[in-house]
TrEMBL record, chain A:
UniProt name for this protein: ESCRT-II complex vps25 subunit
Record carries keyword Transport: yes
UniProt similarity note: Belongs to the VPS25 family.
Gene Ontology process terms (BP): protein transport to vacuole involved in ubiquitin-dependent protein catabolic process via the multivesicular body sorting pathway
Coiled-coil ranges (or none): none
GO cellular component: ESCRT II complex
Presence of keyword Protein transport: yes
From TrEMBL, chain B:
Gene3D superfamilies, per database record: ESAT-6-like
One GO biological process term: vesicle budding from membrane
Residues forming coiled coils: 20-47, 116-150
Protein name (database record): Snf7-domain-containing protein
Gene Ontology annotations for the cellular component aspect, listed alphabetically: ESCRT III complex; multivesicular body
Entry-linked Pfam families: Snf7
InterPro entries cross-referenced by the UniProt entry: Snf7_fam
Length: 193, 209
């Protein structure tokens, strides 16, 4: 039985394994479970990168009508990922440092690291330099919601904070806080690490 | 010391700028809300018209018009805020430019103190004297060469000039001109014929023995 890949309406190519019914069942045998879970993790990362989705929640598998339908469900073979399996997959992603529980201390919703915070820090600094905003004070809203789309549009605030923290360790960012809210100022790289 | 020395301190002006920018963000978000409400009101008005409630549609459209007016007003406020922010940021730049100029000016003054006009003049005079002295010495040395040595030196110079000229000008080798008639072999062929005759004579004389 030949499995085929399938391109979704959002122009994402689903791998052929997605057309196999067993893929959607949590395997009992440890070896097949780890292989299948690894495939699911890669699929989730790829899809998140493609659609610029930053979070995935267990409740996305509980009911349709959300951003993850195309991946968590396959109507053509009438299969979907059960919430219990998704909980397990999320736990695996967190343990491999590919995601974090956000908000912390719960296990139903994660922030996906399809790009590591260190990489986000570099992207952030490059964008600030190229738009001529070094040494100026910026608000978080300015960064996540700029009038012109940028690689950082829609970045969740927790991830933005992590990127800023990484930059401030190398003296390239400084957070300014006042009563009404927070802002950040970026500095050029000095060339010294 | 800690690693934070290269990061400048946060001044009160920075906080003021941040405050203005946060206000600007709030106005922008309010505008986005208004735009969403406008679209919804238009959809509601359409629905009412389709259901045949002309008066309700009219009410919805009036509400929409009012909100459009609000949107325009907030545009004006946004512009004010932006202008204020730009003015403050620009004046901060001006201050730093002025500071730079002041520092440059002071450095220039220090340099001028060391380099006053009199000492420069004295230095130039001394250099001119030294150069003159050196020229005299050269002349004396030049006169010390005897007549013979002078001739040898002149000959060497002429040789060197010839070498340099040969190197710089392209070589003018004399090439032979191309032949205009068929080549004629004269002596070598005659010699060869003689040798053949001599050889045959020898052969004849050998047999009778």
């Amino acid at each position: 039985m030949a499995l085929s890949t399938h391109t979704t309406t959002t122009d994402f190519l689903l791998p052929s394994i997605h057309s196999a019914p067993p893929f959607f069942t949590q395997q009992l045998h440890p070896a097949s479970l780890s292989i299948a879970t690894e495939q699911w993790i890669q699929l989730i990362l790829k899809y998140a990168r493609h659609r610029r989705l930053f979070t995935i929640k267990v409740e996305d598998s509980e009911a349709p009508g959300n951003n993850w339908d195309e991946v968590l469900r396959n109507e053509r073979i009438n299969r979907k990922v059960l919430p219990s399996y998704l909980t397990y997959i999320l736990a695996q992603m967190v343990s491999k440092k590919l995601a974090v529980y956000e908000p912390p201390k719960q296990d139903r919703s994660v922030l996906i690291y399809w790009r590591l915070p260190e990489e986000w820090a570099e992207v952030l600094h490059d964008w600030v330099s190229s738009t001529g905003n070094l040494n100026t004070i910026m608000t978080f809203y300015e960064i996540t919601d700029p009038p012109i789309a940028s690689p950082l549009s829609g970045l969740p605030i927790p991830l933005l904070r992590q990127a800023i923290a990484i930059l401030s360790r190398s003296n390239r960012a400084q957070i300014i806080a006042i009563a009404e809210g927070e802002g950040v100022r970026f500095f050029p790289s000095t060339g010294k690490a | 010391m800690g690693g934070n020395q290269s990061v400048p301190k946060i001044t009160a002006q920075d906080r003021a700028i941040l405050d203005l920018k946060l206000q600007r963000d709030k106005v922008k978000q309010y505008q986005n809300n208004l735009k969403a409400v406008l679209d919804r009101e238009e959809a509601i008005a359409k629905q009412h018209l389709q259901a045949g409630h002309k008066d309700r549609a009219l009410v919805a459209l009036r509400r929409r018009k009012y909100q459009q007016g609000l949107l325009l007003k907030t545009d004006g406020q946004l512009e004010n805020l932006q202008q204020l922010v730009s003015t403050i940021e620009f004046s901060l730049i001006e201050v730093s430019v002025l500071h730079g100029l002041k520092q440059g000016n002071e450095v220039l003054k220090e340099i001028h103190k060391e380099m006053n006009a009199e000492s420069v003049e004295k230095l130039l005079e001394e250099t001119a004297e030294a150069r003159e002295y050196q020229r005299e010495i050269d002349e004396m040395l030049a006169n010390n060469l005897s007549l013979d040595e002078e001739d040898t030196v002149q000959a060497e110079l002429r040789e060197l000039q010839a070498v340099v000229r040969a190197e710089t000008e392209p070589s003018k080798d004399v090439l032979p001109s191309a032949p205009t008639s068929e080549p004629v072999a004269t002596e070598p062929l005659a010699e060869l014929q003689e040798q053949i005759e001599v050889g045959s004579d020898l052969a004849r004389t050998a047999i009778p023995a």
